[in-house]
UniProtKB/TrEMBL annotation:
Alphabetical GO biological process terms: carbohydrate metabolic process
Lineage: Eukaryota, Fungi, Dikarya, Ascomycota, Taphrinomycotina
Gene this protein is translated from: mug191
Source superkingdom: Eukaryota
PANTHER family per UniProt: MEIOTICALLY UP-REGULATED GENE 191 PROTEIN
Family matches, as Pfam families: Glyco_hydro_76
Entries under SUPFAM superfamilies matching the protein: Six-hairpin glycosidases (SSF48208)
Organism whose genome encodes this protein: Schizosaccharomyces japonicus (strain yFS275 / FY16936) (Fission yeast)
Descriptive protein name: Alpha-1,6-mannanase
InterPro entries in UniProt: 6-hairpin_glycosidase_sf (IPR008928), Glyco_hydro_76 (IPR005198), MUG_Protein (IPR053169)
Length: 455
């Protein structure tokens, strides 16, 4: 590993710290020592969402190293305890007979992580297991998640009305991303075609129904009194997922030629990136004064925007937006490493808004950005202590926050590595899909020769 890729080493360290902090290797469960967002039961077991993002982060690590293959296998085993055997997807909580609490967005993120793990895994046996589970999730989404009347992917498998039937940007863009990731790992041309057709359908639906006047992706549609109403709020991960899915689809220039109006893709992609890079827009913290503004979100949402910008920069390297997209990711990653990391334990907070954490965060934010903010505590960033006033609850480190931080830093690490390897025999600079590291399995199960990128 190059000594100047600080992002890579830190991302790997986050995963290791999170493993020791949140993974119970005896019971194969993930949880927190304290009650916090995304935990339930008296022993603070995690819901599937943070488990899915942690699997994504562990899968990301396989792009660079096989060091955490065993950790991924343990977490994969823990994931199976959420698995609904007849639906072929994960429940939000640990599975029990009668549990029908299955979200399409959570499962799409899980499918993305498993498909990426299958693509980069050095173990062919586990590769098949990862891909099979990812395939099951995406097939469920295609068959039951797509709204046959309005289009878009529903939030939940329940069909009893809002909020379950909401047509969300997150579920639709992540389903498209999962389909593209599966298309990359399959040897079956027919299945690849089905995945790409579905991904493009999702992308076009988001374009036609959820873009606001600034080119950013709104949160979704909900049915009210027989009419579909758009939720105008924007988050980094919705626009990020839209950019990411388009970038991945653009990486199939031969296969995607059969898609209708696919020639629109490059301009749609550049328009979305341009909107995402507008620091005067809603994705950025407008209380910041100066040349840099951090993303106005949290680690686990913003990491998807980072991933989308990186994928765009490598699938359209000739675009005038490619370099600014990479620089934005590097700048945001440096901000996260310097200010969102707690030096006391090396763990990361959830929010990127320092003034939501504690009084020290308020002071740092105001000094750094010449602002005048006061403490704005958020319940999700703090221990779930119902009888304690919100502002007195201590900030808490969570699996979701740390997995999101690791994924964001892996995005920056990928930029650094690809720049270093450009022109070398192991050149990984071309295309949205980073080249498999030597030692990983190919789709046929064969091993690539030579050593790993890092040990």
């Amino acid at each position: 590993m190059s000594s100047d890729n600080e992002f890579l080493q830190e991302a790997l360290d986050i995963l290791d710290r999170a493993y020791h902090e949140f993974v119970d290797t005896r019971q194969y469960r993930l949880g927190n020592a304290v009650a916090s967002a995304e935990t339930y039961l008296d022993n603070h077991v995690y819901l599937i969402w943070p488990v899915a993002v942690y699997i994504e982060a562990l899968a990301d690590s396989l792009k660079f190293s096989g060091r955490y293959e065993k950790k991924l296998e343990v977490v994969f085993k823990a994931m199976k305890q959420y698995w609904h055997p007849s639906m072929g997807a994960c429940c939000a909580s640990l599975y029990f007979d009668g549990n029908d609490d299955v979200y399409y967005d959570d499962n799409a993120q899980l499918a993305i992580g498993l498909a990426v793990a299958g693509y980069y895994s050095g173990t062919s046996v586990h590769r098949r297991q990862y891909v099979n589970r990812a395939t099951s999730i995406v097939e469920l989404t295609i068959q039951r998640g797509w709204n046959s009347e309005k289009g878009g992917v529903a939030w939940h498998t329940r069909t009893t009305g809002p909020p379950w039937t909401n047509l969300n940007a997150c579920s639709t863009t992540m389903a498209a991303t999962a389909a593209c990731r599966l298309a990359a790992v399959t040897n079956d041309p027919s299945r690849r075609k089905d995945m790409l057709v579905f991904a493009w359908k999702c992308i076009l639906w988001v374009h036609d129904h959820l873009l606001n006047e600034h080119g950013l992706v709104c949160d979704g549609l909900s049915l009210e009194n027989g009419h579909w109403k758009r939720d105008p709020i924007v988050f980094t991960y919705n626009t990020g997922g839209y950019i990411l899915s388009m970038s991945l689809l653009n990486n199939f220039p031969t296969d995607n030629q059969m898609l209708p109006n696919i020639d629109r893709l490059p301009s749609m992609l550049e328009d979305a990136v341009k909107a995402a890079l507008d620091t005067n827009g809603a994705l950025y913290e407008q209380a910041c004064n100066g040349p840099f503004k951090n993303w106005a979100d949290n680690t686990f949402f913003s990491q998807i925007l980072a991933e989308g910008l990186v994928a765009f920069s490598f699938t359209m390297p000739g675009s005038p937006l490619a370099e600014p997209a990479q620089q934005m990711v590097l700048d945001q990653a440096r901000f996260v490493m310097k200010y969102i990391r707690d030096p006391k334990d090396g763990m990361y907070f959830r929010s990127l808004s320092l003034y939501k954490l504690n009084e020290q965060g308020v002071r740092i934010f105001n000094q750094l950005f010449h602002a005048n903010k006061t403490l704005e505590p958020c319940a999700e960033d703090r221990e779930s202590l119902k009888d304690v006033p919100l502002e007195k609850r201590p900030p808490v480190k969570t699996l979701l926050g740390n997995a999101g931080a690791a994924r964001l830093l892996f995005c920056a690490a990928e930029i650094v590595l690809r720049r270093q390897s450009k022109g070398a025999p192991q050149d990984a600079s071309a295309g949205a899909f980073m080249q498999r590291r030597p030692g990983a399995s190919t789709a046929s199960g064969d091993k690539l020769k030579k050593n790993c990128i890092i040990s």
